[in-house]
Every structure is written in C-alpha cells, then in structure tokens.
Amino acid sequence: MNLQITKPGRSWSRRKQARPGEILDAALDVFAEKGFAAARMEDIARRAGVTKGTIYLYFPSKQDVFKALARHHVGSTLADAMEQTKDFQGSVHEFFETMFAVMAAKLEQDHIAIFPKIIIAESGNFPELARFWRTEVIDKVIGMATGIIAKGIARGEIRDVPPEFVARSCMSAVLMCLIWRAVFANTDKEAFDFKKFLALHLDILMRGLAPEGKSP
Q1: Residue 94 to residues 30, 88, 216: CA-CA distances in angstroms?
Q2: Whose CB has fewer CB within 10 Å in the chain, the N or C terminal residue?
Q3: Domain of residue 32, residue span
Q4: b/e string for 96-129 if b means 16 or more Cβ within 10 A?
Q5: Which pLDDT belongs to residue 171?
Q6: Per-residue model confidence as pLDDT tens digits over 53-70
C-alpha cells in the first residue's frame, strides 16, 4: 500500500490568495441582509466558511471589511477613471456623458445600493464610515470633475462659473440616483430609468452652462 503525502503547494497558495475575496463576497451578502450595525464578524465567517480568527488575519475590524468592499467595488472603477482623465482632451459634455453612462450601468447592479444605504442609515453611529466615503469617493469624484470643468471654462465651452459648484451640481443627480436605488427602488411599480434621467439632467445642465449665444 503506497501512501502519498501531498505537500502544501500552488493549490494551497491559490486558496490562501482567494480567501480575502471570498470573505468580502460573504460580507457583502451579510451587510445586505442585516445592515452594518447588526452584522457580526461571526456571520461573515459563517457565510465565508472560515473561522472568525481567519477574517482577522486579513481585516482588523468590521469597518475595515466595509472599506475593503468599497475600494473593491467602487474605488477600482474610480481609480481607472481618474487615470483616464489625466490626459483627457474631450469636452465637458463628453466627459459627463461617459461618466453618467458608467454610473447608470453601475446602478443596475444590486450591490451598489448597499453602500449608500449603510452610509445614510448608520453614519451617525459610525462617523468613520461617512468620513471614509467622503474622502475616498465623493471628494475624489468632485476633484476629478472640477478639473475637467475648469479646462472647459478656459476653452470657452461653458460659462465662467465656480467649477466646484458645477461639479457638485453634476454629482447631485448621481447622489439622488444612489439614494433612490438604495431606499425607494423596491417600491417602484416600474423600474426607474437611471440612464434616461441622467442624460436629461446633463442636457439641462449643459444648456444652462452654455456661453451666451452658444448652443450646448
């Protein structure tokens, strides 16, 4: 009888590397079901099929799990967008048309509703989450948009108005969509058309920003 002893090798290594992703997938499901405050690390561990101690090897706290989730689902897309805008030479209209199209597609994904729901509902008890979302997402998006708008003003594409105010005006529509998706979407008799809404918002905005005597 020959006994073969398998030493830890590549398959074990791949399993270890995949574990943080499996934990985050489990956390996403648990947060969606229970919210942030009621979710426990034990719940996430059970869903992921690991011990609670294993989670702490990768994530020191529940807040860190949430931050990693946000970076994975939102931060990576944002980082790609910021990289592309460094040398962006298109118009302000083209920039927001592309950004709104990406956002409309994201809004169709179920997990996107989890983040604003947690931030809105639980930022009072967990202000660190609100600060994280502000610095890691909102401020970066507004900063990116402000730079594009400033270029558009310099080129004479739009009126000379405070660029950051314009950026916030653009993002107000996105925030409304996120809140609607997180809070009210389940009560809609018909699915809200986020793509159509954002396109209309952009059309109205660009008409209002067009220089005197110039079409948007």
Answers
A1: 38, 10, 11
A2: N
A3: 11-60
A4: bbebbeebbebbeeebbbbbbbbbeebbeebeeb
A5: 87
A6: 999 999 999 999 999 988
The tokens of 154 are what? 């310099």
- Say yes or no: 41 and 29 in one domain: yes
Report phi then psi at 89, rounded to 5: -115, 0
According to the model, what pLDDT value does residue 164 have? 95
If one counts the domains in the chain, the total is 2
Query: Which one-letter amino acid corresponds to residue 20?
Result: P
In this predicted model, what pLDDT tens digit does every residue of 155-207 receive, in sequence order?
A: 999 999 999 999 999 889 988 998 898 888 889 999 999 999 999 999 999 99
Q: How many CB atoms lie within 10 A of CB 209?
A: 20
Q: What is the mean pLDDT of residues 122-144?
A: 88
Distance CA 11, CA 202 (A): 50
Tokens for 33, please give them: 């079901």
39 phi, psi to nearest 5 deg: -70, 140
The pTM of the full predicted model, rounded to 2 decimals, is: 0.76
- Distance, in Å, from the CA atom of 98 to the CA atom of 83, rounded to the nearest integer, reads 14
CA distance 95 to 91: 6
In this structure, are 26 and 98 located in the same domain? Answer: no
For residues 39 and 117, membership in a common domain is answered with no
pLDDT for res 8: 52
